[in-house]
Amino acid sequence: MSAAPQKAKAGGGTIDVVVRAIVPLNDLVTRFEFERPDGAPFPPFSPGAHTIVEMNDDGRPRKNPYSLMSDPSDTSHYAISVRRDDEGRGGSRFLHTAVSVGDRLSVSYPVNLFPLDLRARKHVFLAGGIGITPFLSMIAQLERQGGRWELHYACRSESLASYADDLTGRHANKVHVYYSDRKEALPLEDLLDGQPLGTHVYVCGPKGMIDWVKTTAADHGWPGDAVHAEEFLAPQPGDPFDVHLARSGIDVHVEPHESLLEAIERAGVDAPFLCRGGACGQCETDVIEADGELIHADHWLEDDQKASGKKIMPCVSRFAGKKLVLDR
Amino acid sequence: MTMQFNTETFRDDYSFRNSDWAIRRFPFPFHEDSYMYSVNMEQHRGGPEGSVYEKRFDVDEHYVSEMHDRALVLAEDPLRCQSLPHMTLAGWDLLELIMVSKSEDYPDLFELHRDGNQWRWINKPLGIDDTFTFLDETTLPYGPMEYITRQTQGDFAVLDQREENLWMDAGMVTTQADWSLDFDIGMNFFEWHAPVPRAHEMGIFKRALKFLLNVQQGSPARRLNWTMTVNPRLDTSPENYHKWGVEKTTLTPENIGAKQHLRVELQTFFRLPRSNALVFPIRCYLIAFQDIVTVPKWGRRLHRVVRDLPEDLADYKGFIANRPLMLDYLSQYDDGLPTSPGVWPDLETEPPLQK
Prior knowledge:
Number of domains of chain B: 1
Shape of chain A: globular
Strand content of chain B: 15-25%
Keywords (chain A): 2Fe-2S, Flavoprotein, FMN, Iron, Iron-sulfur, Metal-binding, Oxidoreductase
Domain FAD-binding FR-type (chain A): 12-117
Number of helices of chain B: 13
Domain 2Fe-2S ferredoxin-type (chain A): 241-328
Oligomer: heterodimer
CATH architecture of the largest domain in chain A: 3-Layer(aba) Sandwich
Number of strands of chain B: 10
Structural class of chain A: alpha/beta
Number of helices of chain A: 7
Radius of gyration of chain B: 20 Å
CATH class of the largest domain in chain A: Alpha Beta
Distance between the termini of chain B: 43 Å
CATH topology of the largest domain in chain A: Rossmann fold
CATH superfamily of the largest domain in chain A: Nucleotide-binding domain of ferredoxin-NADP reductase (FNR) module
Helix content of chain A: 10-25%
Order of helices and strands of chain B: HEHEHEEEHEEHHHEHHEEHHHH
Largest sheet of chain B: 7 strands, antiparallel
Strand content of chain A: 25-35%
Cofactor (chain A): FMN
Strand order of the largest sheet of chain B: 1-8-9-10-6-7-2
Pfam family, one (chain A): Fer2
Shape of chain B: globular
C-alpha cells in the first residue's frame, strides 16, 4: 500500500533478556530462566511454542531453538531446559559452560509449530527424554482450564528423568513414567486403544519414537490430524564445504561446526528462518547448481524434492562435492 | 477527549459524512494508475503520523456511530457474531490485544488498569467502565470476543490454525462487503475464498495462506482491499441484500458524486499469543466520489483504475452495471496529467485539475 513496502527482518522480533537463574536438573539437563532487564512482563505465549536463543560463542553467532517450558500464564519469566549435547556443534555446551546468572542474551518472540488442538476432548502426551519440555507448558495451561490430559514419559533412567518427580508428585494419576534401564516400555498400543472419541495424541522425542507413534496410531485407525509431533533436529556437524550465493554475489566457506544457514548469516546475508530445526519450511532455498551430493537432514522437503536436487534447507542440511550455487 | 465523534447514520437517511480531516487520511488503495491482485502484504508496525496506519487499531470520528450501527445489526441478527467452543481463549487474546493497544495508543480515550487478573476497562467515548476477571467469562456481559468487538470498529475474523490451514471458527461481522459469517463459519481458507475470480488460478491464495500461517507474534501484517458501495451502508451483507442490492439502481448523473462510495478495507493480521489463533480485523472506510475528487491525484487515478479494470473483476466487485455512469462522472476529474507514485494525496506537489 505504500510505495516502498517495508521489508521484514528474517526471524521476526527479538527480546533482550537477563539470565535470572541456572538450575542443573541432572548430569545432562539444565534449566535456564530469563527475565527482562527492565522487569517488564514477557509477551504471553501458547503452550508448545519455542524461542530462538541467540548466543555469541566466542565471536561465532549461534541461534538455537528451545521449547518454552514455563507456565504460559506467568509472564514474569521465560524458562527453557537444555540437554547438553557433547557430540553437537557447541550451542548447548556453550549454554552449559559459558553462561552465568546475570548474563544478557537475546531471544526471539515465541513461535508455535506444536500447538494444542483446542477442539480436543482429551490430550494424550507422549514424551521421550528431553522431549518432555513442551508438555510442561501444555500441562500448566490445561490444569488451569480444567482440560483432560495424561502424560506417558519414557526416560533412560531415574537419574536422568527431568521433572519426573515434580510431575508425578503433583499429578500422580495422570503421569506415567517408563525407565528403559528397568526394561519398562511405553505401552503404546494399549494406551491408544480405548481413548474417548475426540482424543488427540502428541509426541515429542527422538525420530524413531515419532515414527513409531505415527505408524502405530495409523494402524489403529487414528485420524492423521489427531496425531501431532514435534522433532527439532539439531544441525549436525560435518565436513566443511564452500557455497556460492548467486543473488548476493559472494562465496562462503561453511566450517565443520556451523550450519549452512549460520554461515550465510555470518556473511551478512539476511536469510529467512523460523525453527532452525528442519521443520518449518521458512529457509527453503533453491539450488542453482550442485556438483556433488546434497546431504538432506530436514523433514520439510518431500522425498521427490530431495531427490530432484533443486531444493535445500540450509538450517540443517549440508553438501559434499566440488561446487554448490544457491539462489540467495 | 480530543477527538470529536460524529452523530451519523449508515442506513435510512444516510447522514454519514467525512470531515476534511477524514478525507485527507482516507486509505486510498491504488499506488499506481491500474489495479490487479497481488499478495500486497506489508508489516503493520505504524505509519505516518495521523494516517490510518499509525495505530494498531485506528479510532476515528465515526467510532461512536459505527458502534451504534453494529448494535442495531446484532439486535436484528445475532448470528453475525459467532464463536465455536474451542475459540474462547482466542477471544480473550483478542480482548487483551485490543485493550492493551487502545489504552496505549489513545490514553485520553481508553484506560486499562490491571491487577493480576482483575481488570478495569474504561471506554470514555462509549461511556463504559467495567471491572472483570481476565479469563473468566462469567464476569463479562458477553463472551470476550463479542464484548470487545462491540467496542471496536471493523469486522473480525478469528481463525484457528491447524492442519496447515486456517479455519473461520469465530468472528464479528457486521460491516462486510457481501459475505456472511454464518455461511462461512467452520470453513477453511480455500473454502471461504472459493467465490473470488482469477486469484485461485494465479496461485494468490496458496501464497497468501503460506504467508499468513507464518505471521508471528510481535510481527503483525496488513494489506488493503477495496470495492464499491452505493450509499454509505456498512452492513452490505448477503442476509440484507434485498435492502441494499436495489439501491445500486438508484444512481443518476446528478446524485452519483454523493451516493457512490469507494469502500476500502484495511485488513490486518495478528498472531494471538495464548491460543496461537490468527485474528484478521477488517476495517471498512467509506468515501463519496465527490470527496475523493477533492484530491486531484486521487480523482485522476480513480478514473483510470475504474476504466481499465477487467470485466470479471468489475463484475465481482459488483459495479459493472454502473461503470459507464461512474466513468462519465470521474472523467471530468481526469485531465490526462501523470500521477505521482504511491497512495498518498500529495496535495502540495500534485498540480490542480487542468480543466
